Each structure stands twice: as structure tokens, then as C-alpha cells.
């Protein structure tokens, strides 16, 4: 039985706590947050307000990081120093340079995993299998994240609106879709992008972005995100091959053939307990990570894997600043 601790008891922590408590592989023994009132969110374990005190006292096997983005790398390094495996919420870090600090940690035998739960969706797995089994030739993709985030969202947690705190809306709202685009389209090559301020919100980070992304083998993808809409539309992901078009939308994977026939291939279980856009795959990702620890396998989303989406975001930011095409940095 793995001894588990959680650092940060903000919004997303409720999803992690629910999975940990149901797991047959793990036991929640400690939680930490600087806000003492958060102890009520984890009444069934020891509560701390100091991370290092918790790590030194509890001898944990695994730590979940549910923290503001700028704390992911330093807290992962600290937990690794105390011989803990780490599961961090996205993004891995604020940039590739930040995330690369976790490539060679002090104790490399302890795993560091990143929570890209949408890789564990049934729709994602089904499409991966189809593309692999049919050896379909991908020629392009499209990703749309059309959401709403108002000033109240940023005011509630001011780090979200700062470059040094969150890294921007690409890291905050869009990174899951960028991760899936590169998963299906292949190694990233270059991009031309613009980061935009379409609203009058008092934030440093962009509220919108648009990009033309190039991947190996002349695969081209279009990406568009915004927080300026009136509601949260379904994230849309489209992958085009020489034979058909695949679309993931509203939790369903469909295929449209050249003759116009459209068929449903897979559906994701809806998330009725927490925010719908979290998806329903946190449990599968967390349990798979626990199993990888117990069996000492590499079946988890590693630091090098998580750096791929950060490389695309870095290139988009640089392209917007330079007003030019930017090549991959890794």
C-alpha cells in the first residue's frame, strides 16, 4: 500500500482526493496547504502548513502536486529530494527551460509524472489504436478551445493572470489539447502564431491565441484558443488522414469517410461529479501511475513526454513576439 500525500488543496485537489480515497493501491496519510482552513477538505489524514515538515515527518511514497503552476518544478524537486514519487498537475513547468530542471533530479530512481488525463480517455485511446493498426497517414489536425474566463476567475487566484505565475492561457486552459495534437500529429517542427488580448481584462497573460503548427512528414495543424467567449464550448480535436477524418467533440469520437458516411467509434464517460472539462480519466491516470510505481515500469506520462507540449507553447510565444516562424527548441 502506497503512502500518499497531497500538496495544495485548491480546486483540482478534490478530484485527486476522491481517487486516492477509492484506490486499493494507496492510502492518503497527509495533506498540506498554507491555508489552515483547508484542513477541513482532508479531515481523514494529517494536515500540515509546511511542505518540508510534511515530507520529513510522513515518509511518503507518492506526492500529488495540486499547486499554482510556478510551484510545480520547485515542489517536485523538493519531494524528489525526500525520496518521493511525484504526480504533478499540468503544466510540467512554466517553460521548457523550467521543466528541464526535472529531467535529471537528485534521485532519478523516483518517478515524476504529469497529469495529462485526456490521454487516458476512451476516445483518445481508440484513435491511437486505429491510427497504429491501420498505419493511417495523418496529413493534418485541428484543435479548438473556445471557453469563457472572466475577470473574477483571475481575481480569485491572481497568479493565473501573471506570466511568472501561470505561464499564460496556453498553459492553463489549452495545454491538454496541444498535448493531444502533438500525440496524433507527430514530432513538432515549427509554428507561426499570435497571442492576443481580445478582452479588456486586467491580466498580463494572453486571453486568446491562434497558430499554424507544422509537424514532421509535412503534417500541418491549425490551433485556436480563447477565454473571451460567453460560455465553455466543447473542446474540438480533428485529425485528418488520407482516407478519412476523425473528430473528438462532446466526449465522442466519430469518423467521416470520403463518401460522407459518419460513424461513432467511441464515447467517454461524462464527469458528473466535478467540472465537466476535467474529463473522467483522472482515476485511470492516477491508478496507472501507482501501478507503475509498484511494478517499476515506465507506463506513465514522463517529464520528456510533458516537455513536448511546452516546446510548442514556447515556440508559439516566441513566434508571437518575433512576428515570424519559430522552429522547435528541442
Automatic annotation (TrEMBL):
It holds the Pfam family GFO_IDH_MocA_C. Residues 2-104 form the Gfo/Idh/MocA-like oxidoreductase N-terminal domain. It comes from Lapidilactobacillus mulanensis. Belongs to the Gfo/Idh/MocA family. Residues 149-328 form the Gfo/Idh/MocA-like oxidoreductase C-terminal domain. This is Gfo/Idh/MocA family protein. InterPro entries: Gfo/Idh/MocA-like_OxRdtase_C (IPR004104), Gfo/Idh/MocA-like_OxRdtase_N (IPR000683), Gfo/Idh/MocA_Oxidoreductase (IPR052515), NAD(P)-bd_dom_sf (IPR036291). It comes from the Bacteria. Signal peptide: none annotated.
